[in-house]
Design goal:
Spore Coat Polysaccharide Biosynthesis Protein SpsA, Chain A, five-stranded parallel β-sheet, alpha/beta, 2 domains, 333 residues, eight-stranded mixed β-sheet, single chain, UDP N-Acetylglucosamine Acyltransferase, domain 1
Length: 333
């Protein structure tokens, strides 16, 4: 069983964390996001993952030089230029010589989806393509997918205006596709799977979808990147270790509902809550960090306050008494 994993985006929503690193190489509780995605695929029988690469492909090659990730063999497909979602799928699948039913996943989605169930549903309905669906409160940011009683997709509405969506079940970014779908994807231009390929399949009656209300999160924004990790330590999804033995936390400091990377130093009287501190971060005395992310090697000067979803980039040194709320440092263009 083979899968195409879309990891070619620039990760602009997560800057400055992605200034020099693809978002799928960012850690989710100290394990790279891509590794968690591929491990989940491997648990459902995927033996080869084709990485559709664009931005910083070297980061993936350097991280997995033996071509294996989470026990799954990797095939690298580096786009010569951005080809959009369907274009990326087509390029990667052709590069790997895929000629049988295959899986496609978005590399920034973390989910407990039963891929085996999706595969079996697809085969049982004789579908050309099958989409996993997940419910959301606000579907206006996503592709909305109403279906009939048999699971056949009635239409594919990409990012409907608020209040106009026919359903709150959205495209969850995991598909099972027949190789015939590749014939629908032009090779000489950008092609959107959401705006072109799927609507054409709907018109032909060959696209199906399956509802799933299991855990699902698009970890592509600072808010959801933070939430995806807290869900792994606070029992929502798991109870993984939040703090490492290598971390140096002053006895008067307080760390609550937060994830710390390795070799983090937290000074006396500091308070860290609902936040992510990556490797080698230093939090000075008297600092308050809440609902924020501090990247590798950053230094937060004494008596500073970092709140409101702030994102502090790698290596940043903030002076004492800094006060930031909802800030991104350094600012992105």
């Amino acid at each position: 069983m083979r899968a195409v994993v879309l990891v070619g985006g620039f990760g602009t929503r997560l800057r400055p964390l992605t200034n020099d690193l693809p978002k799928q190489m960012l850690p989710i509780v100290r394990i790279p996001m891509i590794e968690r995605v591929i491990a989940a695929l491997g648990s459902h029988g995927v033996t080869e993952a084709v990485l559709s690469l664009g931005y910083r492909p070297d980061a993936f090659l350097d991280a997995y030089p033996d071509g294996v990730c989470a026990g799954v063999v990797l095939h690298y497909a580096v786009e010569p230029e951005p080809l959009d979602t369907a274009g990326a799928v087509g390029f990667a699948a052709r590069s790997a010589g895929i000629d049988d039913t295959f899986i496609v996943v978005n590399g920034d989605v973390l989910t407990d989806l039963d891929v085996t169930e999706l595969w079996n549903f697809h085969k049982g309905h004789g579908a050309e393509g099958t989409i996993a669906l997940t419910p959301v409160d606000d579907p206006s940011r996503y592709g909305v997918v109403p279906i009939d009683d048999d699971g056949r997709v009635l239409e594919f509405v990409e990012k409907p205006a608020p209040g106009t969506a026919p359903t709150n079940w959205i495209n969850a970014g995991t598909y099972v596709l027949e190789p015939s779908v590749l014939d629908r994807i032009a090779t000489d231009r950008k092609v959107s799977i959401e705006r072109e390929t799927f609507p054409a399949m709907v018109a032909d009656g060959s696209l199906y979808a399956l509802h799933s209300d299991t855990y699902w999160i698009d970890a592509g924004t600072p808010e959801t990147y933070l939430r995806a990790q807290l869900d792994l330590i606070d029992g929502v999804r798991a109870n993984e270790q939040a703090v490492l033995n290598s971390d140096e936390i002053d006895t008067s400091a307080r760390v609550e509902n937060s994830v710390l990377g390795s070799d983090v130093v937290i000074g006396n009287g500091a308070v860290v809550t609902n936040s992510i501190l990556l490797d080698d971060v230093t939090i000075g005395p008297g600092v308050r960090v809440h609902d924020s992310i501090v990247a590798n090697g950053a230094r937060i000067g004494p008596d500073s306050t970092i709140t409101g979803g702030s994102v502090i980039g790698a290596g940043v040194q903030l002076p004492a008494h800094s006060e930031l709320s909802g800030a991104r440092v350094p600012e992105s263009n």
